[in-house]
Amino acid sequence: MYKTAIKATHYYSCCRDGEYQSNSSTRKTDRKRPNQKPTRKLNVVCLSRMYVDEYFDHHVEVQYITAHTNHQLGAVELLHLPLPKSTREEVAVKVSKGISSQKILEGM
Questions:
Q1: pLDDT of residue 17
Q2: Which residues fall within 8 angstroms of residue 68, CB to CB, at 6 or more apart?
Q3: What Å distances lie between residue 16 and 21, 25, 90, 99, CA to CA?
Q4: Would you call 28 helix, strand, or coil by DSSP?
Q5: What pLDDT, in 10s, does the model give residues 14-64?
Q6: Beta-carbon neighbour count of residue 82 at 10 Å?
Q7: The pLDDT of residue 44
Q8: What is the C-alpha separation between 11 and 101, in angstroms, rounded?
Q9: Burial classification of residue 67, based on how many CB atoms lie within 10 Å of its CB (0-12 exposed, 13-18 middle, 19 or more buried)
Q10: Where are the domains of the chain?
C-alpha cells in the first residue's frame, strides 16, 4: 500500500507522568497559598502514551500503550483530576435541587 507523507505527528502521554514544574518565580514559591491544590504530577514515569501520525490523505495511524505504570488509577488519584464540564453541570443541577452531596457521590 502506498503511503503519503506525514502531515503531523502528535504525542500524548499520561497527565500524571513527569515532574512538577512551577510556573511562578522563586520568590513566590517560598510561600504556598493555603488553598492550593496538589499537583497532578507524581514525579514518576508512566508508560501510558499515544503516538498519532496524521497523513496528507486525511488518514491517521495510532500506536498506543494503555497500561499505566508507577501509579494506580483510583479514587485518591481521581481527586486531583478535573471533572468534565458535562459532569460539573450535572452536579450543579443536583445541588440546585437540594440533593445531598452523599447521594450525588453515590450516583456517580
A1: 77
A2: 14, 16, 46, 47, 48
A3: 12, 23, 26, 32
A4: helix
A5: 877 776 666 665 555 555 655 655 566 666 788 888 999 999 888 899 999
A6: 10
A7: 74
A8: 38
A9: exposed
A10: 6-73, 82-108
